[in-house]
Specification:
The chain is α/β, with parallel strands linked by helices. The chain has eight helices and seven strands. The chain has a seven-stranded mixed sheet with strand order 3-2-1-4-5-7-6, with helices on both faces. The protein is globular. It starts with about 25 loop residues before the first helix and ends with a strand. The structure holds S-adenosylmethionine. The site of S-adenosylmethionine has 24 residues, from loops.
């Protein structure tokens, strides 16, 4: 079916830096992500070598590359051809062969084959405004097995609107000065102005409405990051 003319352009909302060949090689150092804790959570939830895992908004593949040896099929989906090229290069260097890289987005990835047992997404859903997040979550539910797990991490705000100024200021004041070491104050301010982080009390009903039971919620001490363990009902 043809894409309607009113449909969101996912590439235009992907964040210009994720499409920039000058930025992407420094991404892993800047992000400094260790996937070990998330992998341990997924293993505790039953992840094994028979499973199909989809990583949506996989970026440079820090999670995907660590998870691939633990599952049967790992599909790394990202709208950015630059991020995916970096991921492919890292996969080739490490000799991992069960990763499929797909240049699509939350709203355009068409899953083929056995339904997913696990869907993982970290710091990517905020690229979509809330209407589109709801569509994306419904699409995720449709690509999964009943009982499958969605593990979703994102910049999600677990505070009340009247607390916004104080919580956000505390977050911004902890940002590093140097962009190689993390997201600077200016970059976080841009995130607030131009991207679509939402409140936990808006996102959680969206997750449930899409057909998931939220089994675990971690709102985090900063109240600007949340992680959700969701079961496909
Ligand atoms: C901040 S990075 C996070 C990458 C990785 N998940 C991580 O935790 O390091 C956000 C990623 O989401 C991707 N992205 C943005 N919009 C997307 C969409 N609509 N569908 C899929 N990926 C998207 C970007 O290209 C980028 O690679």
């Amino acid at each position: 079916m043809a894409t309607p003319s009113w449909f969101l352009d996912e590439l235009a909302h992907a964040g210009g830096e994720h499409l920039d060949p000058g930025y992407v090689p420094g991404y892993d150092r800047k992000a400094g992500t260790d996937p070990a804790d998330d992998l341990a959570i997924l293993r505790d939830l039953g992840l094994n070598e028979t499973h199909t895992v989809i990583d949506l908004g996989a970026g440079t593949g820090t999670f995907a590359l660590a998870a691939a040896p633990l599952c049967h099929r790992l599909i790394a989906v990202d709208v950015s051809p630059v991020m995916l090229a970096h991921l492919r290069q890292k996969a080739a260097q490490s000799g991992i062969e069960n990763i499929e890289c797909v240049q699509r987005g939350f709203l355009s990835y068409e899953h083929q084959g056995a339904p997913a047992d696990f869907v993982y997404s970290r710091h990517a859903l905020h690229h979509l405004p809330d209407f589109w997040k709801a569509l994306a979550l419904a699409r995720i539910a449709a690509m999964m097995n009943t009982g499958g797990i969605l593990y979703l991490r994102d910049l999600v705000f677990s505070f009340e609107p009247h607390e916004a100024e104080s919580v956000i200021e505390k977050w911004l004041s902890g940002a590093p000065e140097h962009p190689e070491l993390g997201w600077t104050r200016a970059e976080l301010e841009m995130h607030l102005r131009e991207e679509y982080s939402t409140f936990s009390w808006l996102l959680e009903p969206m997750i449930a409405h899409a057909g998931f039971t939220i089994q675990g919620i971690d709102h985090g001490a900063s109240r600007v990051h949340s992680a959700y363990t969701c079961i496909r009902a």
